[in-house]
Amino acid sequence: MVQKHSSIKRIVHRILEELDATRRIAKVTSWKEAFITLQAKFDIQVMNRNGYQESEKQKKHLLKKHEVMLKYYKKTFADFLETYDYKQNQELNQSKSQYSECIWVCWWQGLDQAPEIVKTCVESIKQNAGKHPVILLTEKNYKKYVHIPEWIEEKRNKGIITRTNYSDLLRLSLLAEHGGVWLDATFYCANQIPKEYFELPVWSIKRPDYAHASVASGYFAGYSLACNESHRWVFAIIRDFFLNYWKHNDTMVDYLMIDYMIVLAQEMNPKVSDVFFDIPSNNPLCDELFKVLGDVYDNKKWDILRKETVLFKLTWKQEFPIMKEGEMTFYGKMINNLL
Hints:
single chain, 339 residues, alpha+beta, two-stranded antiparallel ribbon, 14 helices
């Protein structure tokens, strides 16, 4: 597998970003705690290159980092949290949305410009969506479905809010306005999408205590979020937390901020905590297809993988061989619609 998504310029830029984030965290918490977050971010980079294998020492660093970051957000959000009206979003339940049964997928450039693996993933979602419309959001059409504040658009146009950050806000806003299911465009769907994903108050891929690089720790996943129409208020609260951050900041302090906003909303509102707690565990082998994409296809292994897992999270940032040792790989089978 060849890593594509890196360059010296990008690496230097990211290092400078993280050093600045450490400085900002130190101003609110302490230098000791800020360095804990930096150490944990380094651990994440190491884990990103070893298949996310997590030692007990790294787990300890990560859990401490999450504690510090939540402390940082609570302190910087203090005035907002003190005055925020959690009941205001209940009014959303009074209006209906024609898109409440939709599956939302986003690829900004449009599928014509997408890597082959993304095209295959989106097609797999469409094939297994049943009666649910799949709406592909692009740079050209997303404003038809969602309302984003103009000041956010201005920050995005200036490059303050990156496309990745904006995508996080987009999914929260879509669910707050309409409900439905959000899936990242790099999900391969191996079977019919269960109806409970649309019926539960809130749904996300859930594998409790699975990994700790994110504060979600497997209890939810920001790349797969859903709610039924009557629980749009849950994501309206999380969206408002997200907007509050960008109202007062021009740089990201942590790449996985969406997960912190979800946990912060749970800590601040018991009703939000309850609906996330009630999500049943699902898709236990979500990350396992990615690990074997470049391996020779094995029918028994594939049967094991898809027995209890419908959605497999993949990536477009790496390349995989179609053939290996004269035989087709899992990747080859997938892009040829043979899985």
